[in-house]
Amino acid sequence: MNPFSTIKDLKEQIKNKSISANEALSFFQKRTQQLNEKLNAFTHIFEPEKLSTDNSSHFSLAGIPGIIKANIAVKGKPHHAGSNMLRNHHAAYNATIIEHLQEHNAPFIGIGNMDEFAMGSTGEYSAFGAAKNPWDITRSPGGSSSGISAAVAAGMVPWGIGTETGGSVRQPAAFCNLVGLYPTYGLFSRYGLIAFGSSLDQAGPITRTVYDNALIASALSGHDPKDSTSLPEPKKDYTKKLDGKMPENLTIGVFKEALSGEGIDPQIFANFKENLAALEKLGCKIKTIEHKTLKHGVTLYFILSRAEAASNLSRFDATLYGTRAKEYENLQSMIIKSRTEGFGTEVKRRIMMGNYVLSSGHREFYDQANTIRQMIRNEFDVAFMDVDLIVSPTTTTLPFKFGEAEANPLAIYMSDYFSVPICIAGLPSISIPGGFSKEGLPIGFQFIGNRLCEELLYRVAHALEQETGHFQKTPEKQLAEL
Amino acid sequence: MDIKREEILKLAELSMLSFSDKEIDSLGKDFREFIVHINEIMKISTISDPSSTNRVNVFREDKVIPKDVELILQQAPLRTSNYFTVPSILETPEE
Question: What percent of chain A lies above the pLDDT cut of 70?
Fold first, then answer.
């Protein structure tokens, strides 16, 4: 069996009986057991529950296992969000998206490593140690969905579910030659996700191919009354129109900044231009767009995400759940000691900054940030009057070496230049394999669509993916040398 | 705009966190960088956009849904039969 098989291939093989669902499942379980010691992608590995071998329906995932990020609730399973605060916590219920996946017989074989409370871009802020990039284990597989991208890239599982607040699905996908989606805000239910920045948080699938991603997204979609920000959208089959053909008369927008190459790694810039040329070859018209507030995205994200994080993380007081400090004098000291011991440095830093922005006397910061947020949205609305989709590099840097984040935090934040404004605007965006650097490191290429244009996003991404074929390359050789 | 040590201590109190002196110094440095960013944002001229404040509340019926109470209690850091145990909030008055 090929560990780098796509979901589509596996379903075909199970259907024509060249393998059984049980054989497929145990193959991936065994591979996960073998590789995890080296890659630290999973923090917990377990036997899947409710096993079904029925793979007859179009969406069924029987025998095709996935990895779930540790901030998504799977009933009875570890739900630690990469934090000591929740080290021994187990989910008492299922997230809505987990219920959706179980309706399609999806087996989960473990919990994915991540930066603590999804705050990080490298996976190094996990209380469970950093996951490693299968393409080069001295480098990060991205973050915060670090374990998800590492596991899928290594062929331990064919798919995984991450979460993104400002790049945390698309960036790890880009760093590991995978496909990652940030959906329209509200398309997938957030019920059962540990909140970080609620107005930005969304779950997203990480897969090998666009088709597989669309298949998982179809399963995740659907309105959820338990999430007040869930959109009243019916479930959709996003695989339906994936015929590999580029839709005709398409106009693709390119940010002026992406064309100038400023602040972008030269190898990523060269690669970006190659992908633009491929789009033109497929008949797309390219149009430069100016988005004046785009450059404020990273700073704005700083303010909004930290303010929301400070509010969301105030619930961790070690009264009803979580790790309680061993010694304390009274209720207040119990809470302070538990939070001080339970949270890592980065999380504490963000809580402090969030409370600064929200504290009395500073209200104008948050209000100003929200006004600029609306300006960013409005500018995208205007842009989408002229173009069907927008493209950019997913990240401005190659996969980070371990230790870079602490040494140069600003470079790490700037790497999200093209990804965070999309979350701020609540627009859907997909990162696909764009090619490789001369050292053989993966580079991502991203499409951005207007709200609820996932279908077009998938069609176009699929057509480019089929043309360039970068998804076929795997880190097989690197893994053999481990 | 700068940040004073007392202000950091006040924020720590609001955040229900405690820090060592060394950590306070390091936070001071982070705050100063953060404030540079905030100043940048404050300098942008904006036009008040009514749509940005056009937010609505979403309500749902407050229905009791039976849950597995035991599963929830199992997550308690400390429990006494079917209760969560926490230090007493009100002190017992002296006799």
Answer: 100
List all residues 6 or more positions away from A477 whose beta carbon is below 8 Å from its beta carbon: none
Whether residue A390 contacts residue A440, with contact meaning beta carbons closer than 8 Å, is answered with no
Beta strand A251-255 with A179-182 is unpaired
C-beta neighbour count of A386 within 10 angstroms: 10
3-class DSSP state of A306: helix
In sequence order, which ranges of chain B are alpha helices (DSSP H)?
Answer: 5-14, 21-43, 69-73
Residue in A75, A324, A368 nearest the CB of B78: A324
A132 touches chain B (CB under 8 A): no
Q: Coil, helix or strand for A282?
A: coil
* Amino acid at position A224, single letter: D
pLDDT in tens, chain B (95 residues): 678 999 999 999 999 999 999 999 999 999 998 899 899 899 998 876 655 556 788 888 888 888 888 999 999 999 999 999 999 888 777 65
Question: What residues contact A299, with CB distance under 8 A and at least 6 apart?
Answer: B37, B38, B40, B41
Contact list, B77 vs chain A (CB under 8 Å) = 318-319, 321-324
**Six-digit token string for B68:** 């597995």
Q: Which of A115, A310, A120, A353 is nearest to B29 (CA)?
A: A353
Q: Chain A 154-213, CB below 8 Å of chain B: which residues?
A: none
**Residue A343 in contact with partner chain B when CB distance is under 8 A:** yes
Tell me the per-residue pLDDT of A204-219, one tens digit each, with 9 for 90 and over.
999 999 999 999 999 9
A370–chain B Cβ distance below 8 A for any pair: yes
Instruction: Return the SS3 of B83.
Output: strand
Q: pTM higher than 0.80 for the full model? A: yes
Task: Scan residues 73-92 of B and list those with Cβ closer than 8 Å to A.
Answer: 74-78, 84, 86-89
Asked if the C-beta of A328 comes within 8 angstroms of chain B's C-beta atoms, the answer is: yes
Cα–Cα dist A158/A145, whole Å: 15
